TrEMBL record:
This is SUF system FeS cluster assembly SufBD core domain-containing protein. GO terms for biological process: iron-sulfur cluster assembly. Signal peptide: none annotated. Residues 201-354 form the SUF system FeS cluster assembly SufBD core domain. It comes from the Eukaryota.
Amino acid sequence: MGHVSIRAQASFSDPFVLQLAESLEDSLSASPSSASSSTLSSSLPLQRIRESSAETLISTPWPSRKDEPFRFTDTSFIRYSQIEPVSTQKRNSEILDNLTETQFPNAVIIDGFVSNLTIGPSDLPDGVYFGSYSGLPDELTNRVSEFIGNFDSGDLFWSINGVGAPDLTVIYVPAGCKVDNSIHLRYFSGETGDRESKRLPVSNPRVFVLVEEGGEIGIVEEFVGIDEEGFYWTNPVLEVVVLKNAKVEHSYLQKESMAAAHIKWTFVRQEAESEYELVEVSTGGRLGRHNVHVQQLGPDTLTELTTFHMCVNDQTLDLHSRIVLDHPRGCSRQIHKCIVAHSSGQAVFDGNVRARGIDLETARRALISSFGSEVIEKFPNRVIRDQARNHVKCLL
C-alpha cells in the first residue's frame, strides 16, 4: 500500500503517537504484498481507512488519566514500552502445527492475517462470503464498499488500527439468508516481545461484517494467548452493519496472556427491526479494554449486551459501552458482571445510553413545554390552565 502522508501533516502531533504511526506505515510499505498494483486496486476501502485514521492521529495525543474515558484506565505500560509493529513477513506456522484437527475454528488469524481457513464456499449457504476483501467477487465489491469506513470515529486506538491493519477480513450475508453454523475466528499473536527490554509487538486485526435485510448469522471471536507470560499488544477492530430485520449473535472470548495488552473496538450499526446480541467473557491481559459502540438507525430495534469480566491477577479489565437509541420503540438490555479476585486487580465499567426515541425538533418542543408546565399547572382554574397550555403549544 502507498504511504498515507503522516509526516507531511504532523506539525501538531503528539511526537510519540506520530512515531508509532510512522512505524506502522513503514512496516506495511515494506511488505512485499503492498507493492502489488492489483492488491492496491482491490483494497481501496482499506486505503481510505488508513488515510482518514492518519488524519485523526495527527491531532490526537496519547490518553492519560486526566482524560475522562481513561480516568480509571492506566495505559502507561503500553506508552512506555518499545512498541514495534509485528513483522508482516513472519507467519508463525508453529501455531498451526500445534493445533489439533478438532481445535481448528473456521479461521485462524495470526497478527492480523487470515492464516488458515477450514471453511470454503461450498460449506456456506449460497451468496455468503468469508475471507479477505481482496477476494470478494466482483458483484459484491461495490456493495460492501458502500459501508466500509462510514463509521463514526473512535479513539486513538481505533485510529492506530486504521493505520496499521494489514488486511481486511469480510463476512457478508445476503438478504434473507440464515447461516445455521456460527463463523468462528480465533486470533493469535504470533510474535511476542520481551518484558525486560520492553519490546512490545503490536498487531491490528480488522474484520468487517455486513448482513443484508432479513439475514442472520452468529460470529465467535476468540483471542488466545499462546504463552501465559507473552508480552504483546493486540489492537483489533470489528465493524458490524445489520440491515433491516437482520440479526447478528456475537460471542467474544478474551483470554490473552496475563502480560499482554488487549484493546478492542466493536462498532455496530443497526437498521430498523434488526437485532444485535453480544455475549462476552474476558479474563486475560494485563490491560484488557473493550469499547462497544452501538447505533440504532431505525425503529423497533433490539440491542442486548451481556458481559462478564474476571480479574485473577494484577490486571485491569475495562468495558466502555455506548448505545444510541434515536428512534421509536428502540430497546436495549445490558447486563455486566465482574469479579476482582486479586488485591491489585481492577474492573472498570462505563455504560452510556442516550435514549430519545423521537426526532430532535419534537424533543426540543417537549422540553420547552415541560419547562413551563410547572408554572402553568399552578393556575387554580382548569379552564385557564387549559388555555395557557394550548397557547404555549401553539407558540411552539
